[in-house]
């Protein structure tokens, strides 16, 4: 009698095991295209999604420089952090969001709102960690890093601006960070508002586009304000400080160790 019952039970178990869903491997690391609607207009952006994901993921918002502005939704990944990610895709553990600024614009106003909307959308879709959200940018995007942080100081757990600044370099009138432009000392004003956010600043000592004095003054002001700040100046680098900056292994270990705290002013 027991043998007669055993046969159908074995058949049932085999059938059920055949219906079990197959285990799917994690998708390969790489870039995906997304878009976000702001004020009724769709804005395309890129997201680097790590291959081995343990949610919630750390999230990096990357702001490109002047040369990557446009509407092709590609150029913003071709200089700065994008090439580094392509070379280290299998090991990089974070989600990275790449908005693209239109030609002739800076990272302020509606352009900044689009960048933050892309950050929000990607974080929701891919399981980003709000407490481990970071901001970095190069050149005009380095200026944008300070600008977005000043406007949203409770949003980012740490900053990594590269060859950026706060005031217009000689011969320029389109880079100054508006939030502190009217202050007697824009660097001290910015530092007093950002002293609660850890920062690692990078610049090339030979930079003839944005003088390294921009980053030196900001690092000094942050130190005077009691901030957690690191400053790295590459002796032989001109404006391209982003390649050595993003290739600094200690940067990523330091960055991902930072967490957002409610006490950020």
Automatic annotation (TrEMBL):
Residues 200-247 form the Peptidase S9 prolyl oligopeptidase catalytic domain. Residues 1-22 form the signal peptide. GO terms for biological process: proteolysis. InterPro entries: AB_hydrolase_fold, Peptidase_S9_cat, Plant_Biomass_Hydrol_Est. One of its GO terms (molecular function) is serine-type peptidase activity. Keywords: Hydrolase, Signal. Pfam families: Peptidase_S9 (PF00326). This is Prolyl oligopeptidase family serine peptidase. It comes from Coralloluteibacterium stylophorae.
């Amino acid at each position: 009698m027991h043998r007669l019952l055993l046969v159908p039970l074995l058949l049932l178990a085999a059938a059920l095991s055949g219906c079990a869903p197959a285990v799917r491997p994690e998708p390969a690391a790489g870039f995906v295209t997304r878009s976000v609607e702001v004020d009724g207009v769709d804005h395309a952006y890129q997201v680097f999604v790590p291959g081995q994901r343990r949610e919630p993921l750390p999230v990096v918002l990357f702001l490109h420089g002047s040369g990557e502005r446009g509407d092709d939704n590609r150029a913003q990944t071709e200089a700065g952090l994008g090439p580094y990610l392509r070379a280290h895709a299998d090991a990089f553990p974070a989600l990275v969001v790449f908005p693209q600024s239109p030609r002739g614009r800076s990272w302020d106003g509606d352009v900044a709102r689009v960048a933050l909307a892309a950050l929000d959308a990607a974080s929701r879709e891919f399981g980003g960690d709000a407490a481990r959200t970071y901001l970095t940018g190069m050149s005009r995007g380095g200026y944008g890093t300070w600008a977005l942080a000043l406007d949203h100081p409770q949003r980012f757990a740490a900053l990594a601006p590269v060859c950026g600044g706060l005031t217009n370099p000689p011969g320029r009138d389109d880079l100054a960070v508006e939030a502190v432009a009217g202050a007697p000392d824009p660097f001290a004003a910015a530092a007093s508002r950002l002293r609660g956010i850890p920062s690692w600043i990078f610049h090339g000592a030979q930079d003839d586009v944005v003088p390294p004095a921009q980053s030196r003054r900001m690092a000094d002001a942050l130190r005077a304000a009691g901030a957690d700040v690191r400053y790295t100046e590459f002796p032989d680098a001109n404006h391209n400080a982003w390649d050595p900056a993003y290739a600094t292994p200690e940067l990523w270990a330091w960055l991902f160790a930072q967490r957002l705290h409610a006490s950020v002013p």
